[in-house]
Amino acid sequence: MANFLTRTRGKERLHWTDWLSYAYLLFGVVVMFGPVLWLALSSFKTEAELQHYPPRLLPYIQKTEKIPGYDSALPIFKVTKGALAGQEVAQVRRIGLVAQVVRPDEPGKLVKLPIADRKPVEHVALATSNYVKLFKRFDFLRFLWNSTFITVVATAITLVINSMAAFALSKYAFRGRGTVMALVIGTLMIPQTVVLVPLFLVVRDLGMINSLWGVIIPGAATPTGVFLLRQYMLTIPDEILDAARMDNASEWKIYWRIILPLSAPAIAVLAILSIMWRWNDFLWPLIALTQSKFFTLQLALNSFRGEFNTDWASLLAMTVLTLLPIVAVFAFLQKYIATGIATTGGK
Amino acid sequence: MYKLISPLMQLVDWPMRAFQSRFGQRRLAWVFLAPNLALFGLFVFLPVILNFAYAMTGSEHILLRDRPFVGAQNFAQLTNCKDYLNPNSCQLDVFWRAVHNTVWFIVLQIGFMVGFSLLTALILNRKIRARGFFRAVFFFPVLLSPVVVALVWKWILQDQGALNGVLSSLGYQPYNWLLDPSWAFGFSVFLTVWFHMGFYTLILLAGLQAIPRDVYEAAAMDAASPWRVFRKITLPLLMPTMIVVLVLALIKGVQTFDELYAFTGGGPGSATTLMIQYIYETGFAGAPRLFGLAAAASILLALVLVALTAVQLWVTRRNANG
After folding, report:
1. What does pLDDT average to over chain B?
2. Helices (H), A289-311
3. For the complex shown, is ipTM > 0.95?
């Protein structure tokens, strides 16, 4: 058996360094996945269960039962001491340290019971109450809409204008091309974080503070995107363009009908990057959107985080819903994302 | 999708054709560049110039014409210190605390990050099963949003959280980690390493895989010990990639804000306040809104970043040529 387990493809035994490697990787799985999984599990706990200390791994729900004569379903407890020991009872109300309970088969007869003598009957189940509350009590759909709108529109604009610029920089020989390239490299050196104050003034003068456009437009032209697409377009042979020009195609048509479809792989990479940047964007929206009706999901999440008491029940559910789209995108496009991020240096 | 936009593109075609026949094909390049350059000009280059105008004027007004010229006063305030190593001796002690925090944060973060990324990349570069899966495991936090990452760890570290739960079941006292300055800072470093490590692992892994196989085969012929192979072959050949990783980590580390703001809010006190948060709080978070001071601080930050980015471009270019 041990022989079978330690056999590798090369028919060699696993070296002790291999064991160490796998141990490290498994430890990595726990540390990297564990916290997110824990948060996801926690989001399916009832508020009572979230108060439970020390916390339990799985979400539990207390059993409830409908008893004739009572309007709402009553929580079920198991009695641990006294005359009723071992039986299940439904709690009608609790006054201080004493609980008033009834036996399900004898709903008319109230029995008093010290609360220390009973234990809740629980089973593992996913409670969706946090999610339901999110949609009922908070403007979750509005935040979701704001985030989605910004992400989709900004990505579309970025793709169009970046690919246009990349087309000009890769396929035209014109005076000033070197200068323009230098300018693009220059913008790479000036991240948004160092021009926050004047950017605020410019966006304010354009009347775009507290407007989704104030988040979309300033970051729409990305130097990374221009670079990425230009490098790719340089590999498209000029002969194709010349042939199209022979056929009297306009330059715009060449861009739209030839260059864009041929650069699809690079455009896909930029699209994924842009979606990620926009969905996760935080600092600029925090400055540009101050009214809660314009909040993106990230801003809403941040605003739930109270200084002293945090509404964890809603926060957990909202966090899960916020990371869901990114997880979905990642699951399908893992390969593209990894190469895209590795080639562009993230941003 | 493509078909949907096609009519729209047809519409653009007509004015573009007119421009082409009027000014010629080459000048059309500027039309293609125009939207991108306009946005760069309006939202990058104009703000850079305005930044200096703000840094040299005072008061709480946002409009430049309302702001009195104060010269280098904002810079003088920021750098007015009896002893630069002791933030309490400075006129703006919070700024210097932020500077100190940022320096410490970067030193610790980069140390751990490069260490763990290198270790992980070396292990992932071995002959192991399910490599794609393990690579994805270390990489996926990179995609999460900073706020989500902060909340994930806050949920674990809060006073009734999982960490305290585990500790108290082992017989230790629960502790309020994020209310203790040193622990909050330590966990801030840990959180950012956890968050960004996968990105650097990926770059280092690509660097490792670019090292030619035959170098290792030659070393195996000479029966070199694994440690010697690592020191004499892997490390020197990986150096260019390592430098890229170091510089990138520096550039990003200096700009850390989102995840720490959502994690600790810069506290307790100003224990985890870094440079960007100082700028944000001085200029935007609440009254008084000292735009001039914030602009001056961001110019100081920009100087550091421009230097770092210049190094980065120089290194990547040298790698590409060499």
Report:
1. 87
2. 297-304
3. no
Q: What confidence score (pLDDT) does residue A214 get?
A: 93
Domains of chain A by residue range: 2-42, 64-120, 138-344
Question: Are the beta carbons of B151 and A286 separated by less than 8 Å?
Answer: no
CA A176 – CA A155 distance, rounded (Å): 28
Asked if A346 reaches chain B (Cβ–Cβ under 8 Å), the answer is: yes
User: Which tens digit of pLDDT belongs to each residue from A193-225?
Assistant: 888 888 998 999 899 999 999 999 998 999 989
Which of A204-218, A325-339, B13-27, B39-53 has the lowest average pLDDT? A325-339
**Pairwise CA distance, residues A87 & A68, whole Å:** 19
Asked: is B82-321 a CATH 1.10.3720.10 domain? The reply is yes
Closest CA to A58 of A69, A68, A43, A79: A43
**In angstroms, what separates the C-alpha of A91 from chain B's closest C-alpha?**
27
Burial B228-265 (b: 16+ CB within 10 A, else e): ebeeebbeeebebbbbbbbbbbbbbbbbbbbbbbbbbb
- Beta-carbon-side half-sphere exposure of residue B317 (alpha carbons within 13 Å): 7
Closest partner residue to B298 (CB to CB) among A189, A196, A316 is A196
Task: Look at residue B6 and give its three-state secondary structure.
Answer: helix
Q: Which amino acid is at A58?
A: L
Q: Which chain B residue's Cα is nearest to A214?
A: B43
A118-120 and A106-114 strand pairing: unpaired
What is d(CA B192, CA B199) in angstroms, rounded to the nearest whole number? 12
Q: What is the pLDDT of residues B272-308, one digit of tens each?
A: 999 999 999 888 887 788 888 888 999 999 888 888 8
B179 touches chain A (CB under 8 A): no
User: Residues B225-266: pLDDT tens digits?
Assistant: 888 888 888 999 998 888 888 888 988 898 899 999 999 988
Sign of CA dihedral B299, B304, B305, B307: positive
Q: Are B82 and B166 in contact (CB under 8 A)?
A: no
Split at pLDDT 50, 70, 90, the class of A309 is low
Q: Which CATH number is A138-344 given?
A: 1.10.3720.10
* pTM of the entire predicted model: 0.85
State whether residue B290 sits within 8 Å of chain A by CB: no
* Percent of chain B scoring above 90 in pLDDT: 30
Q: In whole angstroms, give the CA distance from residue B311 to residue B301.
A: 16
Torsions phi, psi for A248 (to 5 deg):
65, 35
Q: Are A277 and A345 in contact (CB under 8 A)?
A: no
State the Cα–Cα distance between residues B306 and A197, nearest whole angstrom.
18
Report CB contact under 8 Å: A10, B313.
no
Tell me what pLDDT residue A169 has.
Answer: 93
Residue A345, H or E segment: none
Q: At CA A254, angle to CA A250 and CA A259, rounded to 5?
A: 165
Q: Six-digit token pair at A70? A: 């009572």
Evaluate if residue A1 carries a pLDDT over 60.
no
pLDDT at A334: 67
Q: Domain A64-120 has what CATH class?
A: mainly beta
Phi, psi torsion values for B164, nearest 5 degrees: -65, -35
Average pLDDT over residues B60-75: 80
Which residues of chain B lie closer than 8 angstroms to A282, CB-CB?
145-147, 257-258, 261-262
Where exactly are the structural domains of chain B? 82-321
Q: Name the more confident of A68 and A211.
A: A211
- Cα gap A43→A50, rounded to integer Å: 9
Q: Which uninterrupted H or E stretch holds A139? A: none
